[in-house]
Amino acid sequence: MTPIAHGKMNLPEIWVYLTGNPLTALFLTLLAYQIGVWCYKKSGMHPFANPVLIAVLLLAGFLKISGLSYQQYFAGAQFVHFMLGTATVALAVPIYQGLAALKGNLARSLSMLVAALCVGSTVAISSALTVAKLMHANLDITHSLWAKSVTAPIGMGISENIGASPTLTAIFAVVTGIFGAATGTYLFNAMGLKRWWVRGFAMGLSAHGIGTARAFAVHPEAGQYASLGMGLHGIFGAVFIPLVFHWLVGS
Fold it and tell me: Rounded to an integer, what distance in angstroms lies between the CA atom of residue 227 and that of residue 99?
């Protein structure tokens, strides 16, 4: 029987009951994200008012103030984690839509995008590893950075394959996506990039799902190509990152 069922409004007892209820963490996760979306819209879709960033800050603050451990929180919010598998399979949809956007010579256009993908992926990995080396990061952190620019569901699988920490990779992926979505527009403007397909593909390649959401908010064409970039990076990353890792680093 719950404190409410007993007809008592003892706040400490109610709090203990709520924190032990798995649905509480799921509710808090969805509520935090909805607050983030509200703030994002109220700000006129400002890149620094990213819904994911706001939700992360709200949840982190709540856990800190309430004393609720991450293990307790994750026990209730793991349904969202479970849905990552569905999200991975659903990448087939944006890939298909992105391919439909390639008008004219599909083979030639796709080969150019794959070439850009290879260069972008190489730069993303090498720059992250270089920074980690300069900061004398340990191997757990360094290895977890290999897949940080691939969308989180696939990146976690890649990290597990190469013996790195899927949790760290997920954190790095989210941070990468938030940073890319927040700064991408300013960087593209500074570089003078005006073609939406170029901006979109670069955003999807480097900032995966969070960057793709930002690209759709800016322009439909940018969103289509961001979806394509994110999907292709996920496929190529899942195949080639483990091969290159084991070749260069060893098992």
Answer: 10
User: Cα torsion for 114, 119, 121, 126, to the nearest 10°?
Assistant: 160
115-129, 179-193, 211-225: the lowest-pLDDT one:
211-225
Tokens 């400002």 belong to residue? 46
Mean pLDDT of the 175-183 span: 90
pLDDT at 15 over 60: no
- Which two tokens mark 60? 């982190």
pTM of the model as a whole:
0.77
DSSP per residue, the chain: --TTTTT---HHHHHHHHHT-HHHHHHHHHHHHHHHHHHHHHTTS-TTS-HHHHHHHHHHHHHHHH---HHHHHHHHHHHHHHHHHHHHTTHHHHHHHHHT--S-HHHHHHHHHHHHHHHHHHHHHHHHHHHHHTT--HHHHHHTTTTTS-HHHHHHHHHHHT--HHHHHHHHHHHHHHHHHHHHHHHHHHT---HHHHHHHHHHHHHHHHHHHHHHH-HHHHHHHHHHHHHHHHHHHHHHHHHHHHHT--
Tokens of 221: 């064409």
**In whole angstroms, what is the distance from residue 14 CA to residue 249 CA?**
52
Q: What is the CA radius of gyration of the chain?
A: 20
Tens of pLDDT, residues 103-161: 665 666 778 888 989 998 999 999 999 999 999 999 999 999 999 988 888 888 899 99
pLDDT at position 98? 67
Nearest to 236 by CA among 101, 80, 110: 110
Tell me what pLDDT residue 1 has. Answer: 46
